[in-house]
TrEMBL record:
<dbReference type="InterPro" id="IPR016181">
    <property type="entry name" value="Acyl_CoA_acyltransferase"/>
</dbReference>
<keyword id="KW-0808">Transferase</keyword>
<dbReference type="Pfam" id="PF00583">
    <property type="entry name" value="Acetyltransf_1"/>
</dbReference>
<dbReference type="InterPro" id="IPR000182">
    <property type="entry name" value="GNAT_dom"/>
</dbReference>
<feature type="domain" description="N-acetyltransferase">
    <location>
        <begin position="1"/>
        <end position="137"/>
    </location>
</feature>
<protein>
    <submittedName>
        <fullName>Acetyltransferase (GNAT) domain-containing protein</fullName>
    </submittedName>
</protein>
<dbReference type="GO" id="GO:0016747">
    <property type="term" value="F:acyltransferase activity, transferring groups other than amino-acyl groups"/>
</dbReference>
């Protein structure tokens, strides 16, 4: 029952991305144009993948995108494990910062990881976003 985090392909993220984030859109909507340039991670419980996150590094900054935990598995700390892993990877690779386009209603959650709000806000698909970042040492 110990959760395991494994590097996966972008194709393997699609089902959880789709079901959790944009179930009413076609599956292509959750594909990213630069998915092949990212690193993708899945958290597995008893061999079942329940949470995914994707990491994109550019100019010593890491952006994480398409972070999602299957609805039935949310609120159990799995997302926290995955996000902490990503932050550790960024620190190990001596990147300068980690950032994301956060759904505004998730900003308190990201604040728990030391991420701070920036002034950049936007709306996409009727959802409000704010750019959040964490400067790394
Ligand atoms: C955001 C998301 C990925 C978080 O994944 P998760 O697996 O539910 O994350 P966690 O269980 O670690 O944390 C969720 C909550 O459970 C709480 N929690 C419960 N048990 C916990 C535990 N054992 N350890 C840590 N946190 C725990 C956390 O404190 C957190 O509370 P908060 O939302 O009030 O801050 C998930 O909610 C999701 O997929 N949402 C829909 C898609 C989405 O919005 N993605 C993010 C776009 S920015």
């Amino acid at each position: 029952m110990i959760p395991k985090i494994i590097e996966i392909t972008s194709e393997e993220t699609l089902n959880i991305r789709h079901r959790t984030m944009w179930p009413n859109k076609p599956i292509n909507y959750v594909k990213l144009e630069n998915d092949d340039q990212g690193r993708h991670f899945g958290l597995f419980i008893d061999g079942k993948m329940v949470s995914v996150i994707s990491l994109f590094v550019k100019n010593k900054a890491a952006q994480f995108r398409k972070f999602a935990t299957l609805t039935d598995y949310q609120g159990k700390g799995y997302g926290t494990m995955l996000l902490n892993r990503i932050i550790n990877i960024a620190e190990d690779e001596k990147l300068h910062k980690i950032w994301c386009n956060a759904r505004t209603d998730k900003s308190d959650y990201y604040a728990k990881f030391g991420m701070i709000l920036t002034k950049n806000r936007f709306v996409k698909g009727k959802i409000e976003y704010v750019v959040m970042k964490k400067v790394l040492n």
